[in-house]
Amino acid sequence: MPLLSYLRAINRALGDEMERDSSVFVTGEDIRYALSNTTNGLFDRFGPERVLETGAIEQAMANFAIGAAMAGRRPVVEYQQPFLAMLVFEPIVNQGNKMLLMSGGQATVPVTFLVLSGWRSGWGAQHSDQPHSVFVHYGVKSVMPATPTDAYGLLTTAIRDDDPVMVFAPLGAHSIRENVVYADLAPVPLGVGRVHREGSDVTVVAVGHRVADALAVADDLAGEVSVEVFDPRTLYPFDWDGLAESLDKTGRLLVVDDSNRFCGFAAEIVATAAEEMHLVARPRRITRADGAVVGCLPELDVALQPCREQLAIAIREIAKSDR
Amino acid sequence: MAEARAEPAEPRPEDLYRVIKLIRRFEERAIDLVRSGDIAGGIHPCLGEEAVSAGICAALRLDDVLLPQHRGHGHVLAKGIDPGALLAELTGRTTGINRGRGGSLHPTDLNVGVLAATAPLGHNGPQAVGAAWAFAQDGTDRVAVGIFGDGAVNQGALLESFNVAALWQVPVIFVCENNQYATSLPVERAIAGSIPARAAAFGIPGGTYDGQDPEIVYRATAAAVARARSGGGPTFLEFSTYRFDVHHTFEYKAGLRYRDADEIALWRARDPVELQGERIPAGLRTQIDEEIESLLDAAELFALDGPKPDPDHAFDYLYSGGVRPRDPAGVRAPADPEKPASPEE
């Protein structure tokens, strides 16, 4: 079986969708030469009008993509750095994501915003954010794949979706490889989670590269605590039914997420579970610190981000605790 | 859509007058409806600027698209949005052009080429570029027009969009409807250099024209449209005009004084309604005026007769394909048990 890497999966999804649907095009910076390894070969295959390289004009191009989408195209806009997604927060949240409503259902905006986000050690404080929480707060459909198969499937679905979709591809997952059968690669529906590992004592919710952390810790604790690893895959709309089903079994919840703690993605999961679901122990979350700024010195950065030791300790505590 | 592709004939003076007068009376009636409370939140009236809308749209085909901004009633009426459906939109009815979800600021009608109307200044420029780029890629000769005010011309997103429009020779027309004030800020205290020179710096031709004379506006726009259709790329048009009344109807209460009476009188002396009205026979003018009053009487009746949306539909149209946000207890106010839910369509 061929070994598919996370970035090759993204590349393959882009190529397959561009082949399948001539309205799909990719735009971004340095995509002609595939600086981020997501657009390899696409320029030669599809030409300059389907692989639209631009300079640093992010606000114009986010709006350009929205305009092109309203005129029948399915643009994919790549941001190699998370701060670029913040620079175009306005067009994504306030333009693209509201057009359907503002037009009373007339104007669809099928744009995919692909963000290579997360920790870049040594790149300084401005390159390492994980901004998904702010986009889901505003109700923008968002996914964060954990595996190459899901990266392929979720990106494919995002491109075919008629609304703007954020695809967060965290750097921590880029080195993940998986044996696949190419013919089995398929779209993954939005809003449907995936149980990577079944267990009966504690539910660990993880997204992106934190899924691999959760699975590794679950393996380490096997025999001591039976851990279920639930990956929602789509951040918004969230698979609440999938989570409830897992909690019906375990009644114990730990959420690990790479965004900052205060008002972060993990907080919403814990809050909703506490309000509406079966819990026999206090839920916990492991996140970046409040307002964490990371990216300069690895020695400092590790103190501010989730780590496997924290996960193991928390899982043991939750397994023992009662409400 | 054969007729959509038909190039419009040169407008007769009475055609331009009719559009100008329709916009004038629509706005005056809409202000009354703000005062009576039928329009929530208020409007940005375009009184005094009507000739720009009339002249631009006279040069466009039905299948060309317009992307206006917040002061957009004139633009969309001139492009062909039905006055009754627009007034129903302003008064928040499900019979409105956007089922009441767009309001005064965001009228959209894909059937007449009003692609989107967006408020944050200048962002419609790059959206127009994207749409126009797609039209050219489709092999059509459709044109997109982004209209913004003087307040938008320093916005990064707009200036960035000049770059790609020129680089890729996109069939887009940028229109600056310069009414001399960005809310309370006059052009001379806000803008360094000249407005069309911004576009010229990117190699986009254009110029500044009298925005009170619809025939001048039409000719300048028609030339830009011809350029765009023939693959000549973008054009930048600045139309000098003046807002006779408030930036927004909240000013009636706020009582800001940022313009002096002499200046307003100077511009009112060049009222496009009079300027164009004097170009047609008096009898014809009276006849058009009467037709417009009956049209707007009917529009107002249609608007105020329409139903308001049911709160049960508060989550409609947020996502495509019928996806709705989750609706657990506590998110919305409890429904009135006496009132059965009604379908919107």
Oligomer: heterodimer
Give me the Rg of chain B, rounded.
21 Å
Largest interface: A-B, 43 and 51 residues
Shape of chain A: globular
Name of the CATH homologous superfamily of chain B:
Thiamin diphosphate (ThDP)-binding fold, Pyr/PP domains
- The top-level CATH class of chain B is Alpha Beta
Q: For the record, what CATH class of the largest domain in chain A applies?
A: Alpha Beta
Name the structural class of chain A: alpha/beta
Number of discrete helical segments of chain A: 13
Which outline of chain B best applies?
globular
Report the CATH topology name of the largest domain in chain A. Rossmann fold
3D structure, described in words:
- The complex is a heterodimer of chains A (323) and B (345).
- Chain A is of the alpha/beta class and 323 residues long.
- Chain A has two domains: 3-184, Thiamin diphosphate (ThDP)-binding fold, Pyr/PP domains (Rossmann fold, 3-Layer(aba) Sandwich), CATH 3.40.50; 194-320, Rossmann fold.
- Chain A contains 13 helices and 14 strands.
- Chain A has helices at 6-20, 42-46, 58-70, 82-87, 89-95, 99-102, 132-137, 148-160, 210-220, 240-250, 265-276, 298-304, 308-320; strands spanning 3-5, 24-28, 51-53, 74-79, 112-115, 141-143, 165-168, 177-179, 194-197, 202-206, 227-231, 234-236, 253-260, 284-288.
- In chain A, the strands form three sheets. Chain A has a seven-stranded mixed β-sheet, sandwiched between helices. A five-stranded mixed β-sheet of chain A has the order 9-11-10-13-14, sandwiched between helices. In chain A, strands 1-8 form a two-stranded antiparallel sheet.
- In chain A, helix 1 (6-20) runs parallel beside helix 8 (148-160) and helix 9 packs across helix 13 (308-320).
- The termini of chain A are far apart.
- The relative contact order of chain A is 0.12.
- With 345 residues, chain B is α/β, with parallel strands linked by helices.
- Chain B has one domain (7-250, 258-322): Thiamin diphosphate (ThDP)-binding fold, Pyr/PP domains (Rossmann fold), CATH 3.40.50.
- Helices cover 41% and strands 9% of the residues of chain B.
- Chain B contains 13 helices and seven strands.
- In chain B, the strands form two sheets. Chain B has a five-stranded parallel β-sheet with strand order 1-2-3-7-6, with helices on both faces.
